Structures are given as C-alpha cells and as structure tokens.
Amino acid sequence: MARGIQVGDKAPDFTLPSQSGAPVRLYHRLGERVVVLYFYPKDETRGCTAQACAFRDSHEVFTDAGAEVIGVSSDSVGKHAAFAARHNLPFTLLSDEKGRVRKEYGVPAVLGIVPGRVTYVIDRQGTVRHVFNSLTNTGQHVNEALDVVRGIQTEDPA
C-alpha cells in the first residue's frame, strides 16, 4: 500500500505482542474506546522518549476522553518492557519486529532508513479519523490526537 492509510480509510486490523508478551488485537480494543495508534522509530531515543512521556503525561486526559493510547515500534517485547518500566508508561507498547504492521499502514521511512513517526486516531467503528506525520514535532502528535479524540467524543458520547 504505497499511499498509506488516510483519513476515512478502515484501519487495518492486526495482532502484535505487547510489552508483557500478551497478544493485542486492534479490533478487540475498538468499540468501547477510540484508539490513538502511534508508530515511532525506537525506544530510548530522545524524540521517542519525549513523545512517550508526553503521551504518559496526558494519559488520564485521553482515558477521560474515551481513548486508549497504543505505541508501536520494531523494538522487541523485552526492550518495550524495559522502556515502559523506566519511564512509567501506563499504556500499551506493541512489538512490530518485522515491520509488517508499519508497512500495512504505509508509515514512511525518513531518508529510506529511519522509521517514521505517524499517529492515527481510529474511531470506535475502525475508521481512521486523523493522521499526523512528523518525525521531529513530537508534542504535536499528542496535542492533535487529543483534539480529535475530544471532537469524536462530542459527536458520539457513547
């Protein structure tokens, strides 16, 4: 899928292991909650740590707004577990070691080598409502996602 997933597309379903090793299926998380799915390059790098901590610091706000945050990178389950523990991350991190899901979503690589940083907001019906792609503006991922989640909540207070 060269063009990547866009607003209005159905989010591709997938199952990946979380930092605890338990399998997580996207479509099992939808329905009750909006999912903020963010792809990031690598655990423990400056930008990725800043982004994860920004999502952590806003976790309660996302939860109150009816959303669940899920981070995805190609790091192993063990690396995710250490990253989540070190930074007290209260949300799920998924291990996409082969990059299959990243590819399915069409997340671009910067300069062809650095995995991109893209955030998707997926509504309860599995429709992508927002896509934000920026490798450097980590805080904007959190702010934009929260704005969209709040907008979805006001239109569908289920």
UniProtKB/TrEMBL annotation:
Organism: Streptomyces litchfieldiae
Listed name of the protein: thioredoxin-dependent peroxiredoxin
Catalysed reactions, as listed in the record: a hydroperoxide + [thioredoxin]-dithiol = an alcohol + [thioredoxin]-disulfide + H2O
Enzyme class: oxidoreductase
Domain Thioredoxin stretches: 5-154
Enzyme Commission number(s) from the entry: 1.11.1.24
Subunit structure: Monomer.
Lineage top rank: taxon: Bacteria
GO molecular function per UniProt: thioredoxin-dependent peroxiredoxin activity
Gene3D superfamilies in the record: Glutaredoxin
PANTHER family: AHPC_TSA FAMILY PROTEIN (PTHR42801:SF4), THIOREDOXIN-DEPENDENT PEROXIDE REDUCTASE (PTHR42801)
Keyword match Disulfide bond: yes
Keywords carried by this UniProt record: Antioxidant, Disulfide bond, Oxidoreductase, Peroxidase, Redox-active center
